[in-house]
Records
---
Amino acid sequence: MKTNDLILKTLAAPSALIIFLLSIYLYFTGHFYPGGGFVGGLLCTMALGLAMFTYGIDKVNSILPINYIYVTATGLLFSIGTAISGTLVGKNFFKHHFTHAHIPLIGEVELHTAAIFDLGVYFVVVGVLMSVILAFGKDGK
């Protein structure tokens, strides 16, 4: 029996894109406002899961051939590297560092090690949850 999923397939791509862009926004604003790497990673996983539910795991994996174990490992390296960076410069473990920089056309910006840590959390959340989704999703085949 063929299912009629025209509405789902029509709305899934723009919805997944909006959810992904919201995850990026929450990642970048998470240092000063609610959000950050964890919530951003959850929303990114939700966007990927919606695409996989709608179009199939194999089709999404052929478009985005990502090994999510490597994404998790990269996130752990970012997070652990940020934690250890304080000890490398003679400060405490997990010491937060920041500086101000002037970027042409953008202006004065603050650079934080917390952003690198949040990026690591983002990658860990996406990697672990997508690994779980793929493990359960491929179990039925």
Note: The chain has five helices and two strands.
---
Amino acid sequence: MILEIDNLTGGYKKKNIVHNISFALDEGEILSILGPNGCGKTTLLKLILHFLPNTNGKIIINNENIAKISAKDLANLISYIPQKDSITFPYTVLEIVTMGRTNQLKPFSIPSPGDFEFAYNSLSKLKISNLADKKYTRISGGEKQLVLIARALCQNAKILIMDEPTAGLDFSNQQHIMEVIEHLAQNKKTILFTTHHPQEPFLISTKVLLMSHGSVVKFGNANEVLTTELLEKVYKVPIEIIKIKDKYNKERRICLIN
């Protein structure tokens, strides 16, 4: 297992928000984390990233407890793509992506030509190298999300954590992000992402974690977890899951609120 979460409990100050969360992921797996607002999805991500201290349980990466791993070494193992950023200075896209190489640099050193080449290659992998010289503050929301993913790729970490990567994006960009996540997993990256769209896990996820009130409702594959019974229990609304076939004759599942 590349990532093991064992009875993880924690939150803010003295208040635990998530309780006894356990699951494990292998290399190249995609985990979707679902649940209503306030159920602890983002807090769980912050605990795994070690942004918040856990009060109980363990986070193990490559058989090592992250409590024993330095911040710099942890950055070589796990990277984070936030839902939104606070970048206001008009850096170029290439400069933003190159910042992902920080964990590879020695103190007081600056990025080398090789670091910029690595950054450009990350843009090329996501098919957005045409944005390299554009000002980050002047590109679209969908383009910004792809740039943040490219910056995370520059860390060269095996685990990528994304907080609602498709939030606020149009259909085209949502689909593009899903395809990017799937491609990264095929290249042996392990992906964790939160979402409010139950149909997304049916498209790409190998595992799903359904949460409510800071605890696990069920962990498993999408067909096991995303059932009418469990979704209605968590979201407190009547839900129907229908099966259709798309124009390629591929079966798809869609969640509807009745």
Note: The chain has nine helices and twelve strands.
---
Amino acid sequence: MAFLDMREPVAATAQPLFPVSFTGSRPVADPVPGEMVGFTEQEWDVILLARRDRMSSLHEPTRLARLSAWLFGGGVARQLADPRLEALRRLAVQAWHNGYAVPNSAIHAFKAAGFNLDQLELMLASIAAGRSSRTGRASA
């Protein structure tokens, strides 16, 4: 039987795997020999940029969206050229919007792109810390 200490607020006890700050600095994890745990600088950039992406960026733009972008200016959501980074971006966008409630299909695409479960945990915990610091409360 498990025991949950309710004397302390959840936000104070919810800590990511590594100390993380999304206020401009990139999180860095100590690498484990023989295992890839963290992300490269470019991958952290993708995760940070995904914070501003809308959920609609995960869908292919319609003809009307492309036409209005051409007529009135503005941009159309485009995918990243690297499929590995695109899988990372898609999962990060969903995590920024929904917290830990990301679809299994995004997790499978993330793993198929060559990432592992340790990286998934690191990214989700880091994003959760960034979400809670942005709103001033813990998010799940």
Note: The CA atoms of residues 16 and 125 lie 5 Å apart.
